[in-house]
């Protein structure tokens, strides 16, 4: 029997099984089995093998019942991702009080069930406090009490009550305190809280602090540096005034308001960067900061307040951005080493005495759309020889000028776009 004959005999069966059956028959020829019995045996083997294979195929993804058409699957439903959850935290609750060897632990729970925990150190003992109105577990620190620590650590909890506020002038004129650490449970430092603490050299402010109020650290004359935390929005009037040793301040990009004379007479402050987040500034912020020599004002700030750099006698480098529209009265008066300054074309107003008594100022650029030059703007600027005006001679003459606006004693030249104007012309 040939392989072709064997295939015809078995009919339309898969090639794989034909080959296997044919090989089996051929291997048993020598046993003189008749062709009829050989064919019968092969059919039995194939039927036995085909039965489980058929069941497997019927249960497989490739099996398509006759007459049912193509297999279809349910369409994939694309849904928008659930909105991000904004936690609505409940109040903090005390889990474990801090000890000298172990931090304390507190917990708060969101309405969704998620929990947040916080560890805190042991604070100074003996501080005086009172319960806040309408609160059952929050207190205000009201005084030093029996505490004798000179390195003051205000704890997150005292006697199981959570510390959330300092009373006004709570540690005012405490000459014995040399450092203070404030817990993150306090988000605002009250008016005059540490004013007059003349021996404080180090202050640790918490993340989450939003406001430092008026005179909070005024007259802390030994304070060397301060890191204002990210998230701080308000720095109150005179907050660090008369901190004579303060040489390093980092103002965060979250700050929105800096109050009146916030750094007044910080004699050791050398450089400062004012971020674009500032929306409001009081007068005289750096007044009489006599070692301040470099200031960067980021684009976005629109105004230089009155007396902002009044008598900053080391200031020689000021970068004024294009966003500034107004330079107010006495802004740079008495900046004795200021040599040059560029005013961008967006500036429309320069106040009285703005650059008075700047004897080193030798050149300045005046924008074309300046509406007025006010009283004694450049008075006593003995070195000012060159004023560049971005407009014509006729436009320069048309600008209203108050009396004694011009430099004293020396000749000067106004360089206009169509020629020069000498002093007195």
Can you tag this structure with a few keywords?
5-stranded mixed β-sheet; 4 helices; elongated; 425 residues; alpha/beta; 28 strands; 5-stranded parallel β-sheet
What features would you describe in this structure?
With 425 residues, the protein is an alpha/beta fold. The chain has helices spanning 3-10, 15-27, 35-58, 393-398, and strands spanning 93-96, 104-109, 115-120, 128-131, 138-143, 151-153, 157-158, 161-166, 179-181, 188-189, 202-204, 211-212, 225-227, 234-235, 248-250, 257-258, 271-274, 280-281, 294-297, 303-304, 317-319, 326-327, 340-342, 349-350, 363-366, 386-389, 413-416, 419-422. The chain is built from 4 helices and 28 strands. The chain has a 5-stranded parallel beta sheet, with no helix packed on it. Strands 23-25-26-27-28 form a 5-stranded mixed beta sheet, with no helix packed on it. Strand 27 and strand 28 form a beta hairpin. Helix 2 packs antiparallel against helix 3. It is elongated and about 80 Å long. Residues 61-72 have low confidence and may be disordered.
